[in-house]
Amino acid sequence: MRAMITGITGQDGSYLAEFLLERGYEVGGVVRRSSSERFDRIDAIRDSVTIFQADIHDQTSMISALREFRPHELYHLAAQSFVPTSWAQPVLTGEFTGLGVTRALEAVRQVDPSIKFYQASSSEMFGKVQEIPQTERTPFWPRSPYGVAKVYGHWITVNYRESYGIFAASGILFNHESPRRGLEFVTRKISRTVAKIALGRAEELRLGNLDARRDWGFAGDYVKAMWLMLQQDKPEDYVIATGETHSVREFAERAFARVGLDWEKYVVVDPALYRPAEVDQLIGDAGKAREKLGWTPEVSFDELVNLMVDADVAALERETCES
Length: 323
Ligand code: NAP
Ligand code: GDD
Description:
Layout: E1 2-6, H1 11-22, E2 26-31, E3 49-53, H2 59-69, E4 73-76, H3 83-88, H4 90-111, E5 116-122, H5 145-164, E6 168-173, E7 176-177, H6 186-198, E8 205-207, E9 213-214, E10 217-218, H7 219-230, E11 237-240, E12 246-247, H8 248-258, E13 267-269, H9 287-293, H10 301-322
Parallel strand pairs: 1-2, 1-4, 2-3, 4-5, 5-6, 6-11, 7-10, 8-13
Antiparallel strand pairs: 9-12
Helix pairs in contact: 1-7, 2-4, 4-5, 6-8, 6-10, 8-10
The protein binds NADP nicotinamide-adenine-dinucleotide phosphate and guanosine-5'-diphosphate-alpha-D-mannose (GDD).
């Protein structure tokens, strides 16, 4: 089997590539051109995957990549994925995160409509939540240009399934984290800064809204759900979540506790980090995924916080030894 991943250099792309390689897949990755290569997340598997230079902003390059590799499955993960940037760059976010999905689907339709397609939809689509917990049937009310673009991506996926009979599945994934998470996302910002403070290299942690609540899981668990969705008889949409919600404050408290520190002595609230419109609370019901895919998360909230803090402490200690 051959699987192609857009966004292979991102957090999820790297875990998914490893997961598929372990299952004997030949893996192709779509990477956009850059003046410097950013392959750190896939360093360990770089020689086991085939890289194609393409951009989700460019239809021709997407078609060429698919034509060359001829995958059986396409996992479309590439996006502008940082919510605050979507207010600063709303048009680019619409192009990449929204219309990029149409370009990926069009490439499938034109090259080989039997390619199975996975769309990385998001719990950000629920935004101002209309129901607690959120399920596949909960109406969307996005609260950021990113969320709006993801709603478009979700519905165009459903539309290509209904219009052309493409096996297109949309995974509505709640927040998932790992030591490979980008440094600007709140969990990694916390784990990295806590590690620095523990090692005497930083004095404070500046955060925005401490009351925001998220349903946080481990990225390694979530990529398995993506794959399971494409192994079913019928393409459907699934919520992937832990069913637990925790505040940013709780995440910070737990992370400082891991290194034996009191969070209240180090966390500074910075109003500049508040968002123009906030998603106050997310909590998903993954009952359908449990029942139909046999999927359940394996890493708990406490385990996630601990593994992220431990990884950042170890990485910083390694950097010290090397310098
Ligand atoms: P990420 O770490 O930000 O990775 C995004 C990937 O997209 C990177 O590989 C990036 O490449 C690539 N990309 C961005 N613009 C591109 C373009 N124009 N052409 C080609 N590639 C481009 O995101 P992630 O956390 O792995 O998330 C993966 C997907 O799941 C995203 O669509 C995200 O919106 C969605 N999602 C994530 C979560 C979550 O909690 N992580 C939850 C729900 C949905 P560079 O390396 O060149 O930047
Ligand atoms: N990034 C960040 N930085 N967030 C902060 C901070 C801070 O200093 N302080 C508080 N927060 C709050 C944000 O206001 C938000 O409510 C919450 O922490 C989580 O923010 P992020 O970690 O940036 O993630 P997100 O929930 O906005 O978006 C992530 O999850 C989505 C799924 O729900 C991204 O991965 C999206 O791509 C993904 O779709």
